[in-house]
Amino acid sequence: MEPSPVAAGGGNAPKSPKGRRVSARHSVLGWLLLSLSCTVANVFVGHRSANPLRRWERRHYEDNHLPPKRARRQRRRGREANEMELDGADRGHRRDGVDGGYLTNILRGIAPFPAQRQRLQYRPGSLQVPPAEALQYCRVDTARYRNHLKKSPAVLVSYSRRHKLIYRNVPKSASSSARYAMENYFRGEDVRMLVDKLRRDVHTRNRTVVSFVRDPLDRFYSSYEEAYYRMGPWMGLVGRRKPMLAKWYHKTKHRMDRYPYLYQNMTTLDDYQRFYCPEEMRKGSPKKCNNVKTIDEGALAQRFEQFVRDYDGLDPFDIHLNLQTTNLVDGRTGEPLPIAVLYNASEAERGWRDIAKHKGVRIPRNGLAVGRKASRRVNLSLVSDETKRKICRLMALDYCCLNLALPEVCRMDEGEGVYCAIEKQTKRREGGGPRLVIHPWEEYT
Questions:
Q1: What is the pTM (predicted TM-score) of this model?
Q2: Nearest to 391 by CA among 302, 312, 327, 334
Q3: Structure confidence by residue, pLDDT tens digits, 90-116
Q4: Contact 436, 107 (CB under 8 A)
Q5: Cβ proximity of 137 and 107 under 8 Å
Q6: Residues linked to residue 434 through DSSP beta bridges, in sequence order
Q7: pLDDT tens-digit map of 159-175
Q8: Which of 440, 444, 437, 434 is nearest to 134 (CA)?
Q9: What is the per-residue burial (b if ≥16 Cβ within 10 Å, else e) of 356-385?
Q10: How many of the other CB atoms lie within 10 Å of CB of 271?
């Protein structure tokens, strides 16, 4: 009797075509299951890795912005549901709007949104949440702020692959020192990263995005002076030395046509420096005038005040006048970028040392003493409180979306002052509750 094919070939006999197809199908399914498992693990690890920074930011915010008793009370409220609801008598409503602690519990899902209300009004900075958390509730109106937004699918960042850290650049908010720190201590490099890739890297590759923000009123002073210098007529006289800069100036100078008084009787840089820099300092390098107290007797301050009166805040003539919030969202949709922590630009060194601690990086004692620091050219003591309050109103998006407290001069503006809104939208969020959005109150009134 002849042996069967299986017995003759043993266990190594070739499989039939059908057997090979079944085996290949099983291999593909196995690889798909392995890939899915790795993806789920990466998402889990990515969220957990950003949590320490987020927890630190929340605790840092409470410790530095709230009185000790109030901070402890807020933490206790985070563990206990707030039973207060707004009824017909508007219980919990203050002169400056709804109580910030109650609104914080609404945002975090601890307290319900009042059934009979569509929007709740409050003062900037009264929410008991850090800026990065407030930003995640902000949706920028891309039509209203179109001149502040770039419709590009990519954003400029400093990217450290080694430390899985991404810094999002915001002009005039400690950006020079931030890029120096990323390049020299975190081995980062400037790249234009697709927003979609940035989101994927955060959620699946354990990347952390950070940035720095600054008090909007103080930043506006710096932004105006930077923009004023960059758009001055002297920029058209650098053709031979810097042809590309001169070409850019001639291409964009039409933006200043609405403000002809800004450069009246000025042609050269020396003409400008005469208004704020002593004569003995103007000899030699123009940079000497960057670190001296201004001698402006009102000529520059008057031009600045006239500009603020004419400016509507929606069509900046230079990128440095763009709002901070519009640098922290997707310019195409107005949706916030997945930023874990927003540090205070006024305490940039402290912020970078905290980042370094979490990433295991050592920064030398004087390793962050960099940045383009310059004295004010406009004499701000001559600028009226009315002008400062107008600036705060122009910066309402930043004050609301970043939950930054108003400076004292703007808190006194009760008539047309800055107020924010938490609005309940009809679209539901994934958890089933209402989708809440933060925006300036005046946008929809």
A1: 0.80
A2: 312
A3: 444 455 667 889 999 999 989 999 988
A4: yes
A5: yes
A6: 428
A7: 999 999 999 999 999 99
A8: 437
A9: bebbebebeeebbeebeeeeebbbeebbee
A10: 14
